[in-house]
Amino acid sequence: MSERTLVLVKPDGVARGLVGEVLSRIERKGFTLVALELRTLDRATAESHYGEHAEKPFFGELVDFITSGPLLAAVIEGREAISSWRTMMGATDPAKAAPGTIRGDLATVMSENVSHGSDSPESAAREIALFFPHL
Ligand code: RTP
Ligand code: MG
């Protein structure tokens, strides 16, 4: 089933010049780019985006990091895009992410793992509406 999902190239990925690498993987896979924007999140938007983690001990650091500089936000579309993009990113911890995945190939630490992808249809709908309310 064709789906849309929210992709972020997080501030570490933008700062390291990995935007082209991530977009290239999306395009080579065959997903369609529906929306694309470089922006720096304010804290309220970041806290809303990661609201599911509000009670976690790492929440403050996560919001500090995701607001620390410009990120690339994108909506991509294609068959099973939500789970497929999560597979392409690899495990949350880059040390456990398989080679060939974004995190497996391009990152070493959990807190700076280059990319985000929505984790369910409900998350995708919520996150797309947060970043791109016109869609
Ligand atoms: P994301 O939401 O950023 O795509 O990452 P994810 O689904 O793979 O992982 P999630 O559980 O949603 O966690 C969001 C981000 O928080 C950081 N994290 N740190 N110290 C820890 O135990 C811990 N757990 C998660 C990671 O940077 C993760 O991407
Ligand atoms: Mg997540």
TrEMBL record:
Superkingdom of the organism of origin: Bacteria
Keywords in alphabetical order: ATP-binding, Cytoplasm, Kinase, Magnesium, Metal-binding, Nucleotide metabolism, Nucleotide-binding, Phosphoprotein, Transferase
Family membership: Belongs to the NDK family.
Subunit: Homotetramer.
Reactions catalysed, as given in the entry: a ribonucleoside 5'-diphosphate + ATP = a ribonucleoside 5'-triphosphate + ADP; a 2'-deoxyribonucleoside 5'-diphosphate + ATP = a 2'-deoxyribonucleoside 5'-triphosphate + ADP
The name this protein goes by in its record: Nucleoside diphosphate kinase
Residues at which ATP binds: K10, F58, R86, T92, R103, N113
Main location: cytoplasm
One Pfam family this sequence matches: NDK
Nucleoside diphosphate kinase-like domain residues: 2-135
GO molecular function, one term: nucleoside diphosphate kinase activity
InterPro entries in the cross-refs: NDK-like_dom, NDK-like_dom_sf, Nucleoside_diP_kinase, Nucleoside_diP_kinase_AS
Catalytic center residues: H116
Keyword Heme part of the UniProt annotation: no
Cofactor: Mg(2+)
Role played: Major role in the synthesis of nucleoside triphosphates other than ATP. The ATP gamma phosphate is transferred to the NDP beta phosphate via a ping-pong mechanism, using a phosphorylated active-site intermediate.
Gene from which the chain derives: ndk
